[in-house]
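sry for the spam today, last one i promise. struct tokens for design, 279 residues
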């Protein structure tokens, strides 16, 4: 083996990963299905493998970052001799099905420009000996956060965190639609929105304890109060002809919980409705 690490897949993310390894002084072998993406990495000092199989036999750690699991299955060598660190996005079920000895799954919680920044994080789970062996190498990409031996946990947390991102972004866009309808600008409103995210982060830290305990005291604000306030959000959206589907969703959850007799509980009580829906 002539390299420290091999990178399979040189899309936007794979190229950023390979470049970060090179910047840290590692010997890197690269492979990509479409050859044109290999040249910029070779110019930075990477060795180009002539096949995916050759790449997988060139280094003790192979980092894969392709479109999806079916794409990875097409190129994966069952006789891969080293550690496979799979940074391809997938479901927890796909990660658990793919896992074997020396398999580490990862969830990248940044975009390509954030690779190499220690403020960024990558979630890992899977074979713990393999993770410990590869940890120093992986540290050059972002702060490695080890979630333990369950190979599905990194993908589960990754997906859950992305859910928070989409909910937050869409909530902010709805709010921006609301304020811009009356002539304000998103840029004037947004500093207040980002400031508000601080208290909201505090609320969820408090509610995490309640979720784990299954007890949801309305000691900060009751569902009765939330419901009355959500009426205003639905109304303000409808008057401005802004899609009210999102506030109506929140409103209907609050109403359901209140009708079930939980009006004096807090917002964390809604998790019971989310769970019931999934069952
Ligand atoms: N870009 C991002 O910000 C996100 C951050 C979080 C993690 N994702 C995941 O990373 C995987 C790759 O994403 P990407 O952004 O690098 O995507 P592309 O630039 O489109 O590159 C895709 C690479 O996959 C190769 N590929 C596709 N199909 C096949 C196949 N059948 N066999 C072999 N390789 C395949 C593709 O090759 P080519 O089209 O250049 O020949 C690229 O190398 C992904 O799971 C994200 O969810 C990124």
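last one done:
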């Amino acid at each position: 083996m002539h390299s420290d690490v091999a990178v399979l897949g040189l899309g936007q993310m794979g190229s950023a990963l390979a470049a970060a390894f090179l910047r840290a002084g590692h010997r890197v072998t690269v492979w990509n299905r479409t050859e044109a993406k290999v040249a910029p990495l070779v110019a930075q000092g990477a060795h180009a493998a002539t096949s995916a199989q050759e790449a997988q036999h060139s280094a003790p750690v192979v980092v894969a970052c392709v479109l999806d699991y079916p794409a990875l299955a097409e190129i994966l060598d069952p006789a891969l001799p080293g550690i496979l660190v799979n940074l391809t996005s997938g479901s927890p079920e796909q990660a658990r099905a793919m896992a074997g000895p020396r398999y580490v799954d990862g969830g990248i919680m940044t975009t390509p420009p954030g690779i190499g920044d220690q403020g960024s994080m990558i979630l890992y789970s899977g074979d713990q000996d393999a993770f410990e062996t590869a940890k120093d190498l992986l540290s050059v990409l972002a702060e490695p956060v080890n979630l333990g031996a369950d190979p599905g946990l990194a993908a589960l947390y990754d997906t859950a965190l992305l859910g928070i991102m989409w909910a937050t972004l869409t909530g902010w866009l709805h709010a921006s639609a609301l304020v811009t309808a009356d002539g304000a600008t998103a840029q004037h409103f947004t500093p207040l929105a980002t400031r508000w995210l601080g208290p909201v982060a505090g609320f969820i830290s408090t509610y995490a304890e309640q979720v784990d305990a299954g007890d949801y005291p309305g000691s900060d604000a009751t569902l009765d109060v939330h419901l009355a306030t959500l009426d205003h959000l639905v109304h303000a959206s409808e008057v401005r002809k802004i899609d009210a589907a999102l506030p109506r969703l929140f409103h209907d959850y609050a109403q359901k919980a209140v009708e079930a007799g939980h009006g004096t509980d807090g917002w964390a009580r809604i998790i019971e409705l989310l769970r019931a829906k999934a069952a």
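Strands lie at 5-8, 28-31, 47-48, 61-64, 83-86, 103-108, 121-126, 143-146. ok im logging off now
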